[in-house]
């Protein structure tokens, strides 16, 4: 095959441009993955999560990393997937329902511990593009387009959750002897 010098130079330039674009995309992806997700405040932490982040996993990781004894939190933001669960006391399980592309108008919950692992309990209210609202216990939550802001207030006492019968649910335990 006989290629002209112009064709060779153009091909080399095109390969260079494509390589640079791939490098830039990889660098941006790496920067997105390394973005700061929380900062210390006077009362605890401010967490800002971005598209694709798993809200419950990030809260659990923060509790483990910082050994948060207990906390409560509130938040707002966009969700790509919000799975709510309504607890069936007879069956002793959650009946889940997932909503996509919703705005979390309210997010509230607590951080405690169960068997040496963080136990995240969260409820919320989500609205869709028709302004219909859905709410209750949140089983799973992923950040959608935009971000989610969560304000975490730390408490000094370590709180535990334990499975209580006949309820069959994890209940926050109080230390009333203080």
TrEMBL record:
<keyword id="KW-1133">Transmembrane helix</keyword>
<keyword id="KW-0472">Membrane</keyword>
<keyword id="KW-0812">Transmembrane</keyword>
<dbReference type="GO" id="GO:0003677">
    <property type="term" value="F:DNA binding"/>
</dbReference>
<dbReference type="InterPro" id="IPR005175">
    <property type="entry name" value="PPC_dom"/>
</dbReference>
<feature type="transmembrane region" description="Helical">
    <location>
        <begin position="6"/>
        <end position="25"/>
    </location>
</feature>
<protein>
    <submittedName>
        <fullName>DNA-binding protein</fullName>
    </submittedName>
</protein>
<keyword id="KW-0238">DNA-binding</keyword>
<dbReference type="Pfam" id="PF03479">
    <property type="entry name" value="PCC"/>
</dbReference>
<feature type="domain" description="PPC">
    <location>
        <begin position="39"/>
        <end position="175"/>
    </location>
</feature>
């Amino acid at each position: 095959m006989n290629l002209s010098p112009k064709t060779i130079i153009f091909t080399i330039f095109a390969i260079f441009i494509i390589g640079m674009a791939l490098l830039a995309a990889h660098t941006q992806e790496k920067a997105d993955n390394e973005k700061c997700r929380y900062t210390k405040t006077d009362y605890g932490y401010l967490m800002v999560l971005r598209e694709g982040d798993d809200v419950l996993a990030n809260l659990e990781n923060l509790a483990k990393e910082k050994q948060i004894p207990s906390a409560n939190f509130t938040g707002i933001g966009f969700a790509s997937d919000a799975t709510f669960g309504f607890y069936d006391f007879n069956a002793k399980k959650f009946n889940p329902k997932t909503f996509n592309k919703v705005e979390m108008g309210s997010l509230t919950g607590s951080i405690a511990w169960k068997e040496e692992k963080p136990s995240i309990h969260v409820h919320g209210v989500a609205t869709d593009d028709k302004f219909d609202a859905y709410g209750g216990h949140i089983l799973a939550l992923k950040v959608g387009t935009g971000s989610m802001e969560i304000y975490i207030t730390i408490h000094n006492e370590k709180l535990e959750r334990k499975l209580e019968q006949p309820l069959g649910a994890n209940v926050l335990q109080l230390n009333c002897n203080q």
